[in-house]
Amino acid sequence: MSMEDPFFVVKGEVQKAVNTAQGLHQRWTELLQDPSAATKEEVDWTTNELRNSLRSIEWDLEDLDETINILILSIVEANPRKFNLDSLELSKRKAFITSTRQTVKTLLGDGNSQGPQWQPGPDKYSRLDRELQTANSQFIEEQHTQQQMIAEQQDEQLELVSGSIGVLKNMSQRIGQELDEQAVMLDDFSHEMENTQSRLDNVMKKLAKVSHMTSGERQWCAIGILLAILFVILILFYAL
C-alpha cells in the first residue's frame, strides 16, 4: 500500500476534526448545563465552531466517499493489483466513512435514525440548528431570569434603604421638634430668672438702705412702731 495514498492523509485530517468536534460538543453541553459559568459570547463562539467543524467533516467524508466510488467503478475493478487495493481494503475505507458519519450524526443529535447511509440534503443540519437555537434561547432566557432576580434583589435593597432613610427622617424631625420645645422652655426660664434677679436687686437695695441707717434712727423707728402698736391696742380696749 503506497505511503502517498491521499486517503490516509484525508483520513488523518478527518480524525483530528472529529476529535475537535467532540471536544467542542462536550464544552457546548457543559455551557448549556451551567449557564451561570459562561457568557453569551462564549456560547455563540462554541456553537459556531461546532457547526463549522461538523460541516467540514461532512465535506471531507463526501470527498472520500466519491473517491472510493470512482476507484470501485472505474479503476480497481478493472485492475486492482495496479493500485494495490483489494475488496477488503475498500471495505475498511467504506467502514471508516460510515463510522465517522455515524459519529457526526450523533453529534448532530440524530444518532437514533435508522438506516446505514446518512442521506445528505439541504436540511441535514436543520436538527442541529434547531437544537442549537433552542439551547441558545434557553441560555438567554436563564441569563435574563438571573438578571431579573438580581434586579429584584436590588429593588428590595433599595426599598429597605429608603425605609431606613424614612425612619431616620422622622426621627430627625422629632428631635428637631423636641429641640424647639426645649428652646422655648429655656427662653421662659431665662425670663423668669431675669424677673427673679430684678426682684432680688430691689430687695437688696431696700436692705442696703436699712443697713445704712444710724443706730439712733433705728431706735426712733422702733419707738415709733411700738407707740403705734400701743395706740391701736388702746383704741381696741376702749372700743370693747
Automatic annotation (TrEMBL):
Its main location: Golgi. Gene3D superfamilies: 1.20.5.110, 1.20.58.90. The keyword Calcium does not apply. Residues 148-210 form the T-SNARE coiled-coil homology domain. It is found in: Golgi apparatus membrane. Keywords: Coiled coil, Golgi apparatus, Membrane, Protein transport, Transmembrane, Transmembrane helix, Transport. GO terms for cellular component: Golgi membrane; trans-Golgi network; vesicle. InterPro entries: SNARE, Syntaxin-6/10/61_N, Syntaxin/epimorphin_CS, T_SNARE_dom. The keyword Transport applies. It comes from the Eukaryota. It holds the Pfam family STX6_10_61_N. SMART domains: t_SNARE (SM00397). The chain crosses the membrane at residues 220-239. GO terms for molecular function: SNAP receptor activity. It is a single-pass type IV membrane protein. GO terms for biological process: Golgi vesicle transport; intracellular protein transport. Belongs to the syntaxin family. This is Syntaxin 6. It comes from Paramormyrops kingsleyae.
